[in-house]
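hey so u asked for the seq, here:
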Amino acid sequence: MPDRQTLDATGLNCPLPVLKARRALRRLNAGDELEVLATDPGAIKDFQTFAQSTGHSLLEWNETDGVFSFLLRKAATQ
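ran it, structure tokens below
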């Protein structure tokens, strides 16, 4: 079963949520999941682009009361 970590990047403006997520993913094993919480609406496009460019999977994202949640799965080749 994959490990799941949560990164609270609320209150940070882009590109900080993505940069912190990149750093957190480095510490995880392939297949592990990282949930990132952010409040900057620009994070939606940033995380979509980040996943496409790095090979990590953006499994889902949603927004509740102004807080965006992104669920990433670390790529096997990272």
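The longest helix spans residues 43-54. The two ends are 19 Å apart (CA to CA).
lmk if thats what u needed
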